[in-house]
Every structure is written in structure tokens, then in C-alpha cells.
């Protein structure tokens, strides 16, 4: 009792440091009362600033628990509390998170969150992430759980996500089940805030774990998450938030004050990778070697390094010049394609840092579009699209204008298609009149080009420019253009979809255009999509035929006409070979009719099951015309061919260009006793895809040019029946 009387007379701060645990317990209890009572500017706080860490590291578990309560009150009320964050949290992580008592860990977690509330989120997060390296799994679990709580309550604007995402894959590799479980919960919480931006960093974790995550992500509500706790500097928001909740109820919409999930670019979550020092020592020697296999080895080594989503900035001048030489001068198309992919990888990985090289490579890529092989064209498109994202249309305008007068139709076509894709990513402010005028002048020359693919591409670019800049800006340049082409440009403009769903400068009459969000185009997370072979133009088109086909009225439905460039035979062969089985292609021209029939049955099954977006309609109907084509002598094979035409027209994105390939043959078979019915079905399907008014004109013209009375009679019969089915609209 004498010993007790000795320490009981001591001041509170000295009791807290006493060697007797009961004295410390008593000191912590009195300190807790003191911290809850005194003013936040009181000089008393300073006495405890140097010893507050000892409250959390107390060796006696009973005293430690009371010490944690006192620390929580201290952090909440003391004006000097922010100065203690580092030492207190290191003690919390090492000496409290490993305790068996749940109450101790709960208080420790509350202390961490209180430090965040007083504006020390960065240090709290740093200490918790350090704790993930602790060898005690209990400490790791508690750190992960506290990080998750912080993110859930304060939101992703307060808690920095990048360092969290960086450590997640390692947590999933832990041998401790409890750690992996907490990692999964944290990954789900992060997903709430950034959605699909979390997928790329976690693609390499165990497939079973990834599948489990995918299942949990599906359950996450689609509504944007909101912060429920606020920093001291956000207390005015907290007041408004509570007022709105009181009015609207707990489910009220408080988006004006609560933190909604910010848009996160996956690129920003990545750490840059330095690749220049990792290039093979003989890279520059091999890339100029005489043997193409050696040049390929050098490019493959670079391609592997360029796959990293974020690259460290450096001097890539020599690498870019080497790739430019391969693209511009190498005669091996495989190497040209590989070099283009490397260039795209560098552009995606460096982003704005690649902009200094853009002007050097764009002219070379544009000139190489004279190469017609689809694989090479696709790689070049991906490369030039990636390069565009690192610079601006203004910077590339001179190079664009220079190739517009090129004699090669492929170069002119691809230049216009590239321009279309670039304008889609632009805004009215990045497409000023000073830039619009020369571009429109160059495109107007191509509108009258002899090559149809060049004309179509130029019209598409003009329509896209009208969508972005508005009719008022583009109309003056179209004064000398005939009305048919102007209408086509306007039709394209009305249906173009801009990046991010923006409406462009002339989207709605009487309303101002959407304000430009940024001078730079939006950056996609992955490579750009290939330029499509066809585009949508808004016109009225008929509905699909019913399964019965007969006398049911086919009511017109508002949809889109497909404008497609005419493809060469070689391109069509490659596109068809990519979707049809090799055995099917091989037996199409077999001398044995049974093999041809088997081939067509396989062809039909592929057409029936193929995805609409993946169906190369023009290539497929051209493949049907291959020898013996429409001169087929076996009626079973011919019936199946005609049926395939109907299926492709019904299921695919069928254009007038594709229709023109088969119309002559269909009209020729109209009077055939065994195949006439199938020919009429095919014509009906094409009429629905391309409009009855257009196909009627074509079919009647072709029928009366053949001078076959039976074909002419059956054509008129088909047309009369079609008018009953479609009605007179259009």
C-alpha cells in the first residue's frame, strides 16, 4: 500500500511512464479524462507529445488497452496530434496489430482512421503498407483490413490507390489463407471505386483467385460509391451531407457533397519500366543484318519489352529511327508488321513522351499504306493511331496534307480513314477553322477521285468533321459539291459516334456544342480498334423477315445503311479464309458435287453461327462466286448457295456493295424451277438490308437487260409480292 501511495501522488504524465503497470493504467485513465476535458489549444497537450507512443507500446495488455483509448482521444482533440503520427503508427502496427484482443485491434484501427481525419492520410497509408512486410500474418491481416476501412469510409480521393494496387498481387500469393481472404475483400473494395481499371494489374494472379474475384465483382452495386467520413477540412461537406441525408433518408442522393468515384486511368496505376538498358547488346547490328531471321530476332526482343503498359522516359531516338527504317524500307512484310507493333507499343507506353518522335514516323507509316496485305495494313493502322494519341492533329496536319495528293489510292484511302479516326477523338477546340479549312479542301479533292474506296473514305472524314465542328463550320466548304454527296456527308455526320459519347459542335440545333474537356484527345486503356471496312449511314431500312417468310407485313424500322468499300479479290480471299474452315474453302471448287455440297453445308453452318461484327459479308458472297460459282450444275448445291446469301444478308452488316456482287446471279436464277424460290428469298433478305426502293430498281433493270421472259415475269411477281410485304414506304 505504501508503494501505491508513492506513485499516486505523481502527476498524470509521470504516472504514464511509471515502471509499475498499475500506475500506468491509472495514469492512462486520468489522461483519458483530461484529454476529453481540456481545450484543444491547452499547453497540457505538449506534455504528452513525447510520451504518447508509449501508450500504445505498453507491455501490459490491460494497461495498453486503456492507453489506446487515451491515444484515440488525444489524436481527436490535440492540436499537436499530427506531429505524433509516424511514431504512434509504427507502434500500433508492430505492438498492437499482433495482439489477440479484438478490442485492442479495433482501437488501433480507429486511431489510424482518426489520423487520416486530421489530414495525415499519406503517412498513415505509408505505415500500413510497411506493415504488409511484417512476418507476422496477424499484423498483415490487420493492416489490410484497416486500409480497406479507410478506403470504404474516406473514399479514393483521400486514400491513394496506386500503392495499394501495387501490393495486391503479392498479398494474393501469401501462404496464409486469412491474408488472401483480406486481400480479396480489399480488391472488391478497390473495384467499387475504379471498376475495370483494376483488371489489368491483377491479370497475372492465380486463375482460381481471379475467377473468385470476378464472381465478387459482379455482385458490386452499379451505383457510384460515396465517402461516409470526412477530413477536418471537409467538415462543411459533412454538414451538408448530414442535412441531405436527414431530408432524403439514408438512401437519398447526396452526390453533390459526397465523394463519388473519380475516373481512374489504368496507366496511372502502373509503375514505369526502363527498357532501353534491357535491349540486346547486338540489337542495332541485328536489326540491319542481311538475314531477315536476324532482323526478326531483334524486333521480337523489342516487342517483348514494348509490351509493358508504362515505359520509363528516355532517349528512344535511335530505337525509333531503326523501326522507321524497317517500316519504310524492309521488303519483308512480316518484319514491317512487327516493327509497326513495336512502334505502337512504345507510343502506348510513353504517351506524351513519345510526341517528339511522332512527326518523324507518321509520314513513313502513311507512305507504307501502299502495302495491301490486310495484316500489314492492320498493324500500320494500330501504330499510327497509337502515335496520334501522343500528339495533336495540328502537329500532324502538314504530313496529312502532303499525302492527300499521292497517286496511290490505298495511301489516300488510309490517310482519310486515319483522319476520320483522329477527328473522332478531337473536340471543336482542337479542330479550329485554321486547321479545318486545309483538311476539308484536301478531302473535297478526294470526293471526286476515280477510286470508290478513296471517295467513300473522304466522305466519311468530312462527315466526321461536320459532327465534331458542326454544320455551320463545315458547310461553307461544301458549296461547290453536288447535293447527293452533301446529303451523304450530313447523313454520316448525324450517325457518327464520337469518343466518350460527346455530341460535337453541331449536335443539336439551338444548343451549344459540348465544351471541350481537354486540349488533348482522350487516352484509351488499350490499343485502338482497326479502321472498319464499312460505316453506318442513317437511312430507313426494312425489318428482318419473319421466320415464316410468307405474307406477313414487313414494317419499316429506322436503322442504318452500311456503306462499304469494294475490296480486292485477294483481300476477300484472306478475310474469308480467316473465318471459314480450310476444308470448306478447299472443296468449294471440287469436281465432285458431293464434296461441293458438303463444303456448302459447312459454309452454311459457319454463317448461321457467326457473330454479326465478325462476319465479312462481301468476302463471303464473293467466295460463293468462285468457280463453278453461279454456273453450278447441281441444284442442291446451288440451292444451298442461294440460302447462304439470304442468311448473310439477314445476319450480317450487309451493304449495297456486297449486294452488287450477287444481284446479277440472283436475277438469272429467278425463272429456275428448282432454285427460283431460294433466289427470291435471297432478294427479299437483301431488300431488307439495303432498302426495297434501291433493290427494286436494280433487279428490274437487270431482269429486262437479260431478255429472258420467264426471268422478267418472275422478277415482276417477286416485286409485286415484296410491295405487299414491305408496303409502299420508301
UniProtKB/TrEMBL annotation:
Enumerate the spans annotated as TOG domain: 1-226, 268-502, 566-730
Q: Which PROSITE patterns match?
A: HEAT_REPEAT
SUPFAM superfamilies in alphabetical order: ARM repeat
Q: Drop me one GO molecular function for this one.
A: microtubule plus end polymerase
Locations listed in the record: Cytoplasm, Cytoskeleton
Write down what this protein is called.
Answer: TOG domain-containing protein
The record's listing under InterPro entries reads: ARM-like, ARM-type_fold, HEAT_type_2, TOG, XMAP215, XMAP215_CLASP_TOG
**Record key words, sorted:** Cytoplasm, Cytoskeleton, Repeat
Query: Could you tell me which species this protein originates from?
Result: Oncorhynchus mykiss
Listed GO CC annotations = cytoskeleton
Where would one find the signal peptide in this protein? none
Which intervals of the chain are annotated as region Disordered? 500-536
> Which stretches are HEAT repeats?
439-477
Amino acid at each position: 500500500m505504501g508503494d501505491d501511495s508513492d506513485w499516486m501522488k505523481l502527476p498524470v504524465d509521470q504516472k504514464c511512464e511509471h515502471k509499475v503497470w498499475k500506475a500506468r493504467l491509472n495514469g492512462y485513465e486520468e489522461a483519458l479524462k483530461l484529454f476529453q476535458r481540456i481545450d484543444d489549444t491547452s499547453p497540457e497537450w505538449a506534455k504528452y507529445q513525447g510520451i504518447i507512443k508509449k501508450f500504445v507500446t505498453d507491455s501490459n495488455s490491460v494497461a495498453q488497452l486503456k492507453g489506446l483509448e487515451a491515444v484515440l482521444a488525444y489524436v481527436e482533440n490535440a492540436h499537436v496530434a499530427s506531429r505524433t503520427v509516424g511514431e504512434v503508427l509504427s507502434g500500433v502496427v508492430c505492438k498492437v496489430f499482433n495482439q489477440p484482443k479484438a478490442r485492442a485491434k479495433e482501437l488501433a484501427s480507429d486511431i489510424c482512421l482518426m489520423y487520416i481525419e486530421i489530414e495525415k492520410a499519406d503517412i498513415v497509408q505509408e505505415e500500413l503498407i510497411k506493415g504488409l512486410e511484417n512476418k507476422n500474418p496477424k499484423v498483415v491481416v490487420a493492416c489490410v483490413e484497416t486500409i480497406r476501412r479507410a478506403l470504404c469510409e474516406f473514399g479514393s480521393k483521400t486514400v491513394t490507390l496506386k500503392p495499394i494496387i501495387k501490393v495486391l498481387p503479392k498479398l494474393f500469393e501469401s501462404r496464409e489463407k486469412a491474408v488472401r481472404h483480406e486481400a480479396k475483400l480489399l480488391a472488391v473494395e478497390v473495384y467499387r471505386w475504379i471498376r475495370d481499371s483494376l483488371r489489368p494489374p491483377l491479370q497475372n494472379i492465380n486463375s482460381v483467385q481471379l475467377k473468385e474475384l470476378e464472381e465478387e465483382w459482379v455482385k458490386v452495386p452499379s451505383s457510384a460509391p460515396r465517402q461516409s467520413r470526412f477530413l477536418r477540412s471537409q467538415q462543411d461537406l459533412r454538414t451538408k451531407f448530414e442535412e441531405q441525408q436527414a431530408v432524403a433518408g439514408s438512401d437519398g442522393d447526396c452526390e453533390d457533397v459526397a465523394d463519388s468515384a473519380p475516373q481512374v486511368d489504368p496507366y496511372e496505376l502502373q509503375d514505369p519500366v526502363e527498357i532501353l538498358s534491357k535491349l540486346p547488346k547486338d540489337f542495332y547490328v541485328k536489326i540491319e543484318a542481311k538475314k531477315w531471321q536476324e532482323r526478326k530476332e531483334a524486333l521480337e526482343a523489342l516487342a517483348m519489352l514494348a509490351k509493358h503498359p508504362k515505359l520509363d522516359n528516355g532517349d528512344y531516338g535511335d530505337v525509333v529511327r531503326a523501326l522507321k527504317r524497317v517500316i519504310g524500307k524492309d521488303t519483308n512484310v512480316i518484319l514491317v508488321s512487327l516493327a509497326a507493333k513495336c512502334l505502337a507499343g512504345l507510343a502506348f507506353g510513353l504517351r506524351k513522351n513519345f510526341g517528339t518522335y511522332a512527326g518523324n514516323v507518321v509520314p513513313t507509316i502513311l507512305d507504307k499504306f501502299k502495302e495491301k496485305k490486310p495484316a500489314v495494313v492492320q498493324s500500320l493502322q494500330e501504330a499510327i493511331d497509337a502515335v496520334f494519341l501522343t500528339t495533336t492533329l495540328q502537329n500532324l496536319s502538314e504530313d496529312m496534307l502532303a499525302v492527300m495528293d499521292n497517286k496511290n489510292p490505298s495511301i489516300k484511302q488510309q490517310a482519310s480513314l486515319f483522319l476520320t479516326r483522329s477527328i473522332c477523338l478531337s473536340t471543336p477546340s482542337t479542330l479550329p477553322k485554321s486547321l479545318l479549312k486545309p483538311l476539308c479542301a484536301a478531302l473535297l479533292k478526294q470526293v471526286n477521285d476515280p477510286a470508290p474506296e478513296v471517295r467513300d473514305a473522304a466522305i466519311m472524314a468530312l462527315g466526321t468533321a461536320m459532327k465534331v465542328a458542326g454544320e455551320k463550320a463545315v458547310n461553307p466548304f461544301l458549296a461547290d459539291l453536288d447535293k447527293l454527296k452533301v446529303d451523304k456527308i450530313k447523313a454520316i455526320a448525324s450517325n457518327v459516334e464520337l469518343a466518350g459519347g460527346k455530341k460535337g459542335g453541331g449536335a443539336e440545333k439551338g444548343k451549344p456544342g459540348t465544351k471541350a474537356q481537354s486540349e488533348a484527345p482522350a487516352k484509351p486503356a488499350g490499343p485502338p480498334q482497326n479502321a472498319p471496312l464499312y460505316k453506318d449511314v442513317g437511312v430507313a431500312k426494312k425489318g428482318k423477315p419473319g421466320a415464316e417468310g410468307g405474307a406477313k407485313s414487313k414494317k419499316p424500322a429506322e436503322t442504318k445503311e452500311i456503306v462499304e468499300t469494294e475490296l480486292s479479290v485477294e483481300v476477300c480471299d484472306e478475310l474469308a479464309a480467316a473465318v471459314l474452315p480450310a476444308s470448306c474453302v478447299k472443296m468449294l471448287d471440287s469436281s465432285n458435287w458431293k464434296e461441293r455440297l458438303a463444303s456448302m453445308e459447312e459454309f452454311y453452318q459457319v454463317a448461321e453461327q457467326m457473330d454479326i461484327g465478325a462476319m465479312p459479308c462481301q468476302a463471303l458472297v464473293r467466295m460463293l462466286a468462285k468457280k463453278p460459282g453461279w454456273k453450278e450444275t447441281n441444284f442442291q448445291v446451288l440451292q444451298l448457295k442461294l440460302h447462304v446469301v439470304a442468311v448473310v444478308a439477314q445476319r450480317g452488316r450487309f451493304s449495297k456493295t456486297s449486294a452488287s456482287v450477287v444481284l446479277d446471279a440472283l436475277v438469272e436464277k429467278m425463272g429456275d424451277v428448282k432454285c427460283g424460290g431460294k433466289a427470291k428469298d435471297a432478294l427479299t433478305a437483301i431488300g431488307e438490308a439495303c432498302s426495297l426502293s434501291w433493290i427494286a430498281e436494280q433487279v428490274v433493270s437487270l431482269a429486262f437487260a437479260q431478255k429472258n421472259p420467264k426471268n422478267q415475269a418472275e422478277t415482276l411477281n417477286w416485286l409485286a409480292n415484296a410491295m405487299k410485304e414491305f408496303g409502299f414506304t420508301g
